Amino acid sequence: MRNEVDVEAYLRGNGIEDFFGDEEDELDEEVAGKMRSTLEEYLSVKDFNEVVLCIEELEAVSDRWRHFVHIALAFSLEEKQAVRRGVAELLVQLFTSEKISSEDIETAVEIILDDYDDLRVDIPRLAVNLSELWTPLFAKEALSVQWLSEACSHLVDSGRAADVLDALLSSLEAQDGREALVNWWKKQTDVDAVWTQMSPAEDGKPKDERLAKWKLVLQ
Fold first, then answer.
1. What is the Cα–Cα distance from 206 to 192, expressed in whole angstroms?
2. How far apart are CA 48 and CA 186, in angstroms?
3. Can you tell me where the transmembrane regions are (predicted)?
């Protein structure tokens, strides 16, 4: 396990020390360290049941699974692609086994999106890295495009919201092919509004050229 100083720095650097902005919901450093160690062990041996056992043992921790999701996401953002794939695989398993909910994932991701501009300074490929983490979750309908458009509303003017959606759609197409992407898109709700929510509209089409092309593909 990381030493106390490392854990404290990790918490502060990833916004985990004030996860919900409420003092009574702050995550104890020792607990965060245990969660981090549990994640690292999973990435080494891929023992899903051990993850469940370790996190469930933290009965006194409010919203322990929600905290774990955020730690997993924050930990893997700057790691190698293989780590993000491993974390994505774990989150899908946790979702399909009903250990975590869509709300748990959304809350954890929203904290990262709120700090998007700051994180991007150190992680220029942040949109791509995020897509590697959450594409399988979108494919499993744990997350929705409508939710994403709302969560990225503060990134529209800067064009970062378009970066995020473009990276997601590119990743979904690379993973499952264009036909599967089109079918997936048809299952989403309020898709017509998504284009203009993610990029200011001009003459009824997204201003961002990448999103304008995606709209033609997915219509």
1. 11
2. 32
3. none
- 7 CB burial (10 A radius; 0-12, 13-18, 19+): buried
pTM (whole model) above 0.70: yes
Which residue segment(s) compose the domain that 76 sits in? 1-126
120 in a domain, yes or no?
Answer: yes
Question: Residues 54-86: pLDDT tens digits?
Answer: 999 999 898 999 999 999 999 999 999 999 999
What is the Cα–Cα distance from 215 to 140, expressed in whole angstroms? 22
- Residues near 172 by Cβ (< 8 Å), separated by ≥ 6? 135, 138, 139, 180, 181, 184
Tell me, yes or no, whether 122 and 49 share the same domain.
yes
Tally the domains of the chain: 2
Three-class DSSP category at 137? helix
Answer whether residue 2 shows pLDDT above 50.
no
Q: How confident is the model over 81-95, as a mean pLDDT?
A: 97
Task: Say what the pLDDT of residue 206 is.
Answer: 83
SS3 of 206, please? strand
Residue 137 lies in a domain: no
